[in-house]
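Posting this for the archive.
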Amino acid sequence: MRYEGFEPSPYDHESARENELGTVRASRLDVIAADLCEQSDNQHSAPSNTIAPIFELARVQYTLPAPLVSLVVASDVLAMGLTSHVIVLIELAHSDQVIKIPIPRKPSEFSIYKLFMDPSGRHLVITSLEGENWYLFRSWKKPKQLKTFKMVIESVAWNKAALLSSSHLTSTREILIGARNGTIYEAVLDAQEDFFKSQERYLGAVFTLPERQPITGINFDFFPSMDPKKALIVAITTSRIYQFSGTLPRRPDEGGRVFGLIFAAYRETAPSASVCFAYSPRLTMKKKYPNFRVTFDIPSYTIIRPIAGSHIRYQKK
C-alpha cells in the first residue's frame, strides 16, 4: 500500500528537535536572567562588593554664616571666601572639622574677589577687588598680606610638578599670574620663615598683552616630561587665546626665574586682533575677489580672525 499524499513529513524529526532546542535555550536564558537578578540583588545588599563610582555627589554638612564669594577645592581640601572677610577651610575627609580664618581688613577697604589654591592644597592666594592680595599657608592661623602684589588677580598657573613632589613643601616654586590689567607676572611664594626674607621671594612682570584685557585663564607645562628643556604657556582672555613657547634657561628643578627669557622673544612683535587660534603657520588668505591674494607670516602666539566672505588656508613653512 502506498501512502500518496499522506507520507510522513521528513521535517517532523527536525521540527521536534528544534522545539527541544528552543525549550533548552529558553530555560538557559531563564537561568541566566535569574543569575543576573541575584547578582544585582547581592550588589545592592552588600555595599562592600560594589565598585566605587567615578563621580559622586554628596552634601557638605556646613551652613554658611555669610554669602559665599569664591570656592576652590584641591587635594581633598575645600576653601571658601565669604563676604564677611572670613576664609573657611574644610578637609573633606574630616568635614566636621571646620577652620575659620578672618582677614584683618575693614569691609569698606577690602572685598574678596577670588581664591586660588595650588594642586597640593597647601597654598592659598586671596585677591580683592581693590588689588590687595593675601597669602595663607596650610598650617598658618592667619594670612599674610602680599605687599608687592598690587594687582587684581584673575588666574594663576601653578607649578604642578614641583608642588606635588615631596621636596618642595613650603615653596610654590615658579608660578605665573594673570592680572586684570592684561599683564603676566612670574612669582615665587615661600611659607618658610626667614628673618631676612618675606614670603614674596620675587615678583616680576614678564609680558603685557597689547589688548590689555583681563587674563581669565593661564597655564604652563614643561616638556619633554623625562628631561624638561622647553616650556609651553597658554593665556586666555575673554576673546583670544595666546600661546608662548621657548627653551628654558635652566632645568625647572634647579629653581630661579625661568619664564623671563621665553616671553622676551615675543616683545618685538605684537599680536593682531583675533578670535581663532593658529600655531606658527604661514597664512594664505584668498578672497573671493579675482586677482587678489595676500600671504604673510604670523608668530606662534598670534590669533587669526576669519574675515567674512574669505577662504583661509594654512601652509606649513
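The radius of gyration is 32 Å. The first strand starts at residue 68 and ends at 74.
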